[in-house]
Write a structure and sequence with these properties.
The structure is a homodimer. The first copy, chain A, is of the alpha+beta class. Chain A is built from six helices and ten strands. In chain A, strands 1, 2, 3, 4, 5, 6, 7, 8, 9 and 10 form a ten-stranded mixed sheet that branches.
């Protein structure tokens, strides 16, 4: 028996999230079915991040145990023909038999894409949130900087969060929060694609999407960048902005510290 | 009666090309239906570029005549609710009543996207051609440079081209042909997205896709950049490379010289 670690990429549009649910198309469900067929044995996946319905990934991580004789680094190729086009295993390798993707220190990188043009771009509609109003990206950058560091992120998380409901800590550390602009004529002149790239040691339920919704309000002028500190201190979800839609969010990578892969 | 000029963007995946065809979903057909409904009169579109099935656009141009009282610059907003999500009119304005989008000098800009990773990226599958082999992008840049200038592009066009079959000239001018790389960790490390951006005064049937297929072969080493001149001189389609798939191609813009818009 060996444990295999997979890097999993998907277009979340047509999945009901990562985690297996009866009767619904989920990443975990579809991937487990393909692995069972490939390995000819029952397979149970353990995923690192249970991304929401509609959220995309270029770097989610999952492990499973198998008796299969397929070489660990070949699983990604062997799965290619068994997976639908909106789901791919982009890398595979052996890891220690007790390595658990949610019990290791890791830095997660998320990107949130906003299309800032007067009219929606049909080529970005599945992967970006459309904002037709002019955005002050300098104010948004300032707002993002207020979030960097260790804070109690209760105000920036959905109160339905299981961790919060069980009385767990809402303290998380954001290592960096950048804004990148891709403008120019490709997007009809001037305005274009805005990406928020946020790295942290862990994220509460809806945290990146609520951060995005709040930072967006500093871009339209509805909030000031300085308000972010007050919102953090309030620990009140109602003080923060709206939850940005799932389609703009992509889990880019999970970087584990001091890997012990076999 | 006034003539309105539209800038048209679409995700070509689910369209059978631009030009109207009986029983099939086309950009022209869907857009004309929406305009008829909006203007409450029969509308006939004249398109600048009859893009192929599966080809995308961020800047195709079309005109139509109308008695409607909608202000010319508001058509793009008025159409927003009447169009499906994969089709948008991103700008609208009045133009001279005799202005014809195919009878003006213009520079067209196309981009062809290639995803160069070992395993397909599910988020790019609709908009890029997947090449799993390492590509020598310097050789590809050299090959592209050989194409810049005025040449007879018979070897780089589909022999079914109506222009060629009618005995028309195959001489076209490519103003610039660049290769841009977006690599990095976002695409699983090292390799990533390669874009070919080609500007010219006109393109023959399948010309950008055959250029891409040929330039790709200089990237894998199957052809040398110097071969491009011989292929041009041969005027023989069989000497050039394969026709790259439609999904990687996007018409980015059409820039008309010395506009006479009213």
């Amino acid at each position: 028996m060996k444990r295999i670690r997979l890097k999993v990429a998907y277009d979340g549009t047509d999945f009901h999230g990562f985690q297996k649910l009866p009767e619904l198309r989920t990443v975990e469900g579809v991937l487990e079915d393909a692995l069972c067929e490939l390995c000819r044995e029952p397979v149970e996946l353990i995923g690192a991040s249970r991304t929401d319905s509609g959220v995309h990934s270029r770097g989610n991580v999952a492990v499973f145990d198998t008796e299969s004789s397929i070489p660990p680094d070949r699983f990604c190729y062997a799965l290619d023909q068994k997976l639908p086009p909106d789901l791919r295993v982009i890398a595979s390798e052996a890891c220690a038999p007790d390595w658990h993707p949610r019990k290791q220190k890791a830095i997660k990188t998320y990107e949130y894409s906003i299309y800032n043009g007067r009219i929606e771009d049909p080529l970005l509609r599945r992967y970006a949130w459309h904002c037709p109003y002019p955005l002050d990206t300098e104010a948004m950058r300032e707002a993002l900087l207020q979030l960097v560091g260790s804070h109690d992120f209760t105000a920036f998380s959905n109160p339905a969060s299981q961790i919060l409901q069980r009385g767990g800590s809402a303290e998380r550390t954001i290592c960096s929060a950048e804004l990148m602009e891709e403008g120019g004529p490709a997007y009809g002149g001037g305005r274009g694609l805005i990406r928020l790239r946020i790295k942290g040691d862990g994220f509460l339920y809806h945290m990146v999407r609520i951060i995005t919704g709040t930072v967006m309000e500093t871009g339209t002028g509805a909030k000031a960048p300085e308000d972010i500190k007050d919102i953090l201190n309030s620990k009140d979800r109602k003080k923060a902005g709206m939850t940005a839609p799932a389609r703009g969010l992509c889990l880019m990578s999970i970087d584990y510290a001091a890997e012990d892969g076999t």
